[in-house]
Amino acid sequence: MAHGSYGQFCPVAMAAEILCTRWTIVLLRELAAGSTRFNDLRRGLPRMSPALLSQRLKELEAAGILERVASAREPGVFEYRLTEAGRELGPLVEGFGIWGQRWVDSDLSLQRLDAQLLMWDMRRHLDPKPLPARRNVIQFRYPELPAERRSWWMLVEPGSDVDLCSLDPGFDVDLYVSSDLRTMTAIWMGLDSVTGAIGDQRLMLTGDDRIAADMQRWLGLSPFAKERKLVG
Fold first, then answer.
1. Which of 104, 131, 141, 186 has its CA 20 to 30 A from that of 14?
2. Given a cut of 70, is residue 37 above it in pLDDT?
3. Do 198 and 164 touch, CB atoms closer than 8 A?
4. Helices (H) and strands (E) in the chain, counts
5. Contacts of 132 (CB under 8 A, 6+ apart)
6. Which helix or strand (DSSP H or E) is residue 54 part of?
7. Per residue in 183-221, pLDDT tens?
8. What confidence tier does 3 reach under pLDDT thresholds 50, 70, 90?
9. Which residues lie closer than 8 Å to 183 by C-beta, 6 or more apart?
């Protein structure tokens, strides 16, 4: 990574040469959150080009932060897994998030809305325990967005990972969730609440009353939502 060299022997400078290139910290966020496959990493980094993602993965592999390994379950499929050196970066990545939650103005955060990132983040933190012990299909709709980004479906089945679809999966929907993207992002970040948004008619829930009543429980919050805002 000589193209970004600070020319200093200081360990801070040396680490920064590896970690402070564009997209690297948020890529590490996705890896630390458990994404191991190229397409899953792309879903968490929708604005990062595939070419740049591939380049950053190769750089992190060369730095000993991750390794590319063949999937034990699917022949011909490769996964990216953090090494011991990579896992040691977990508290640093978490520290970035805590600092951002505390010290970045809420209005600034809510100007950078991204439906795909929001849905992917909610999907991996969704808690299925409050939901009925059967397949549950929850459709999220953001009416102000273009048609191709307006509707999302979460499929929750006992014993399986939560699936996120941007195309109608063809199952009956148990709960329709309609909101503007800013409101749903604020709820996820702990800056708003399901109850408050319903009371202000910024959030509409239609369908199974039990699932609707427990939405705040199964939806949960961003891992950083518990951090108290110190600015804005």
1. 104
2. yes
3. no
4. 13, 7
5. 208, 210, 211
6. helix 50-62
7. 999 999 999 999 999 999 999 999 999 999 999 999 999
8. low
9. 192, 197, 202, 203
